[in-house]
Amino acid sequence: MFKKPWGQPKIRLLLVDGDIANIEAACKALENSNLPFAVDTAFDGKIALEKLSSKQYDCLLVDPDVLARIGQNVSEALAMAGPEAALVVLCHPHRPHLPRELTDLTGVTFLDKEALRSPNVAERISECLEVGRAMRNGEIDAFLVPTAGTASPLLSAGADGLYRALVDALQEGILTVDSEGNILFTNRRAGEILDCDPDSLLGLSILALADPEDRPWIEVKIDEALRGMTSRCELGLACPGQAPAYVLVDLGLVEDMGGGVSGVCLALTDLSEEKRLRDELEKLATTDPLTDLYNRRYLAESLEKECRRASRYGRPLSCLMIDIDEFKLCNDLHGHLTGDDVLRQVAALIKACVRDTDLVARYGGEEFCVLLPETPYEGAMQLAERMLSTIAGQPLSGRERPVPITVSIGVWGSNDKEDLEPDTIVGYADAALMEAKAAGKNRVCSYHPSRSLGTAEAEASQAESSGPLNED
Amino acid sequence: MRYTLKLYVAGHTPNSVRAISSVKRLLENELHGSYVLNIIDVLKHPELALDYEILATPTLIRVMPPPPKRVIGDLSNRDKVLRGLDLTAR
């Protein structure tokens, strides 16, 4: 910068504009300002080139149209002014697009032409120069070109479009925070996980987003990451006004180009979806798809648990085996689709009869098993009778016509403290069911301990006697 | 006195990211919470850049109390920012 020996350094300015009124207004305002501008002017391209070839300038303020009229462009004019000169392009606010060559120049700033007539034009120009300086130092990311009603941001060279695209394509949510936990960077997925605009997270503290219980935890983890350890935790994070998301967070140190610490990167994996899939898988593994009842596998697990519990605490436990009467005939008469409907309806009726704590499972084709914890034998019998009459009470709806359906039920119940074995329980209830079948179906039979398993048919004649046979 | 400041950034470029961190730390240290900071992404909301005739990002503007004061470019230099915004540390 040229420095006069007797005063403050003057910034030598060449203003090139075809509008004399603009030039006059700007000169007047610049003279009156206390900023150190030495202004020279040119109202056409030829004068501008003459001045540029004979004198040195620190800054050019140019309307590109003036140069274009004589077949010149601003980059050539700037080259003439010298490597240190700053360029301020005067643009028409109502012209949305700039000449392509302008957007490729670095260190160029843009000023609305109307600013020349503003009383604070000196401040505006000095700001342009400050932007030019910062841009040459690599401090500027984007400069804004005033256009009609808005401003067009132009990213400066080196802004990270590719890197951005890559990070946005990741399936993990990415946040980076500084050492105090302020969020500096977010990707698209982070916004999706937390159900908010990712930019709305910028500047917020990760600690404020964390579930209050998890706050000390995440603080410790960030601290570990800052010390170079990789760490991992699970926590609830919520964007203000949103429901929390449960996430797995992997933390790692982020170093800057010079090897210094610039913050911590948090990679978020949404566990809400994983949990949903886990739940879905568990449902698939434990339920029967046709009837939505539990399957045999789940029954076996529960039976074992309930047996242990009942034995240990001396609590009652009962079990029902239920079989649809003449189901094969029903299939033959009404078709298999109706058969499926019948299975679903019977399943629903059984469920409607029991309590929430009871467990209903589809045992086999048309067989169901009901496990009744905390239920003595008498209660199980009452329930079985009620179930029998409910199901027999009204015909089920078939595809074409109503289908009359009945069931047979075998009951086993323990009132006493016994050593219970899951297999035996089901076996007992099944034996009682066989009795009910042999005795003519559509009835409830209970297991009698004096009979051994597998002799149900032999004793079918006695089977009609309902009541607690094991209390004989 | 409560200060209102606006920080204009362009997406997640390294300078923008650094600016957010620097400004948060500086304001917290100097103004101890008695401030409101709005962060504006000009890539998302270019029209907001017109409000204060923003030329480039990062730019930090003190909006309240008037008159507006601004600092452009690197915001990590405490003295430069305090001087540029005419902030009196409490």
* Gross morphology of chain B: globular
| Counted beta strands of chain B | 5
Q: What assembly state would you assign to the polypeptide chains in this entry?
A: heterodimer
Q: Structural class given helices, strands, pairing of chain A? A: alpha/beta
Helix content of chain A: 25-40%
The number of helical runs of chain B is: 2
Number of strands of chain A: 17
Low-pLDDT ranges of chain B:
none
**Level-1 CATH class name of the largest domain in chain A:** Alpha Beta
Number of helices of chain A: 16
- At the first level of CATH, what is the class of chain B? Alpha Beta
| Succession of helices and strands of chain B | EHEEEEH
Spans of at least 5 consecutive residues with low confidence of chain A: 1-6, 451-472
Please report the distance between the alpha carbons of the first and last residues of chain A: 117 Å
The outline of chain A comes out as: elongated
CATH topology of the largest domain in chain A: Alpha-Beta Plaits
Nearest-integer average pLDDT of chain B: 85
Strand content of chain B: 25-35%
Work out the largest interface and the residue count of each chain.
A-B, 42 and 35 residues
Q: What would you report as the Rg of chain B, rounded to the nearest angstrom?
A: 12 Å
How far is the N terminus from the C terminus of chain B? Answer: 10 Å
Describe what you observe in this structure.
The complex is a heterodimer of chains A (472) and B (90). Chain A is of the alpha/beta class and 472 residues long. Chain A has 3 domains: 11-155, Response regulator (Rossmann fold, 3-Layer(aba) Sandwich), CATH 3.40.50.2300; 161-274, Beta-Lactamase, CATH 3.30.450; 287-471, 2-Layer Sandwich (Alpha-Beta Plaits). Helices cover 39% and strands 22% of the residues of chain A. In chain A, the strands form 4 sheets. Chain A has a 5-stranded parallel β-sheet with strand order 2-1-3-4-5, with helices on both faces. Chain A has a 5-stranded antiparallel β-sheet with strand order 9-8-12-11-10. A 5-stranded mixed β-sheet of chain A has the order 14-15-13-16-17, sandwiched between helices. Chain B has 90 residues and is an alpha+beta fold. Chain B has one domain (3-85): Glutaredoxin. Chain B is 29% helix and 29% strand. Chain B has 2 helices and 5 strands, in the order βαββββα. Chain B has helices spanning 14-31, 78-85; strands spanning 3-9, 35-41, 56-57, 59-64, 69-72. In chain B, strand 4 and strand 5 (69-72) form a beta hairpin. The N and C termini of chain B lie close together (10 Å). The mean pLDDT of chain B is 85. The chains are: A alpha/beta (472), B alpha+beta (90). At the A-B interface, strand 5, helix 6, strand 6, strand 7 and strand 9 of A face helix 1, strand 2 and strand 3 of B. Strand 6 of chain A pairs antiparallel with strand 3 (56-57) of chain B.
